[in-house]
Amino acid sequence: MFEYIEVARKLGDELSGLMDEDQDAGKNKPEIAVEELREAYSKIKEFAEDCNDTGIEDAMEALAKYDLPEAEIEKVNAINAALENFDFDGIVELL
Question: Is the entire prediction scored with pTM above 0.70?
C-alpha cells in the first residue's frame, strides 16, 4: 500500500515540475484552442469518473505541450494535486 502512495507522490512531484517548467517555457508552445481544451477536460473528467489515473496522466501530458492561460494553469495544478492523492471525486468537482 505504501509503495503506491510513494509512487503517486513521486509522479505528482514530476508532474508539478513539468507544469512549472511549462510556465517558464510557455512562450515557445502553441496556444491551445478553446475546443481542444474543453475536449481534454472532458476526457480527464471521464477518466476520473472511472478512477483511471493513467488516462488522466496521459491527458495532462498532452496539455503540457500547450501554452495555457493563467486561470487554466491554476486548474491544471489543482487537478495534479488531486491526482497525487488519488482524489478522483475532487478532479470531477474541479471540472
Answer: no
